[in-house]
Amino acid sequence: METIQTTTRILQADYGDCIFFSLTNGTKEYNILVDGGTDHTYYDFRNRRNPVGPLKELIDGLIAEERHIDLLVLTHVDDDHLLGIKAWFEDCFPSQNLVENFWINDDISIKNIESLNNDTSKASSLIQLLRKNAYKYENHIVQGRQFIVDDLCVIKVLAPSVIKHNAISEKIAKSLNNNAILPEEYKMPIKILINKPWENGSLSIENNSSIAIEIETIDHERYLLLGDASVKDIMKGIELFHKEDSLPICYKWIKLSHHGSKNNFIPSLLHMVCTETFIVSTNGKYYNHPDKDVIAYLIGKTKSNIFFNYPERCDLLFTKQDYIDYPDLNKRIVCEL
After folding, report:
1. How far is Cα 257 from Cα 259, in angstroms, rounded to an integer?
2. Do residues 90 and 129 touch, judged by C-beta distance below 8 A?
3. Which of 145, 193, 312, 336 is the most buried (most CB within 10 A)?
């Protein structure tokens, strides 16, 4: 069996997600783009000298190299995942040759795993643009489905459930307006945080509807891209696809749900999965992600590395005591995958 080679780019997408994942087996390439970050990820007028954002640089590079995106996944319709794609499609709508497949759960509700829906005001203009251009996309992305990419991988949908997917069609997305100060937990040492009782808050309907996927290559390397999905749905999805496997299920890397939010994590997840590297994709603005409670468990209860696509977030996240208590902390905080 030929070994599958993979490359991963976690683009700087402000407080959002934009992930480019590529698989090759020597003769065949399969490229997956998950989410588009904020609109600044595509074109950033704040930077007068070089307004081209990392998403546009990626797309322009693929075109120049005569490559394409085999699968574009919009996990859900929050601004920090949607607007980069929206800005791209409004600037230069891609051909189906450039983006062969697009997953976006739209405004058609479903009764079971065979059909599905979602629509909000933030996504409506993008969906209208897709339909205006007669662009074919897949909108039946719910827990339990899987897609086989010949000779490369299997993509397994862990979340959302049908019920949570359908709930998004009943809600108009809220505007983003949260400028919270740095949380007190950032000043607390890891050893204190991992001994506190764990409490989860509620998730928004948008986040509950988020797509989460597992990619498994034909040589059995696994990756988790969890969007902003519910941790309970994620765990149910893992159980669904790994009924016969012993725990924990090992992954090359895991992109944390909702940028490391405490509401999308429970400590028992670490009994179900293990990984070389957890990925935190955010600059921390607006929502102060990641929650240090989550990072504390990853540092204190695993041997995994943690990747930050904005390394400067670590300067705020860890205390002097953390570096004393965990002498290998500097080595475990990585900026490359």
Report:
1. 6
2. yes
3. 193
DSSP classification of residue 194: T
CB atoms within 10 A of CB 221: 18
Phi, psi of 84 (to 5 degrees): -65, -40
CA distance 136 to 117: 15
Q: Write out the DSSP string of 233-278.
A: HHHHHHHHH-TTSPSSEEEEEEE-GGGG-GGG--TTHHHHEEEEEE
Q: Residue 59 carries which side chain, given as an amino acid letter?
A: I
CA distance 22 to 26: 12
75 three-class SS = coil
Question: 113 falls in which pLDDT band (50, 70, 90)?
Answer: very low
Measure the CA dihedral 164/167/171/173, to 10°: 20
Name the residue among 231, 271, 282, 274 with its Cα closest to residue 38: 282
Q: How much is the average pLDDT of 328-334?
A: 95
Burial 308-317 (b: 16+ CB within 10 A, else e): bbbeebbeeb
User: What does the longest C-alpha to C-alpha distance in the chain come to?
Assistant: 58
pLDDT tens, position by position, 259-299 = 999 999 999 999 999 999 999 999 998 788 999 999 999 99
Tokens describing residue 198? 């764990």
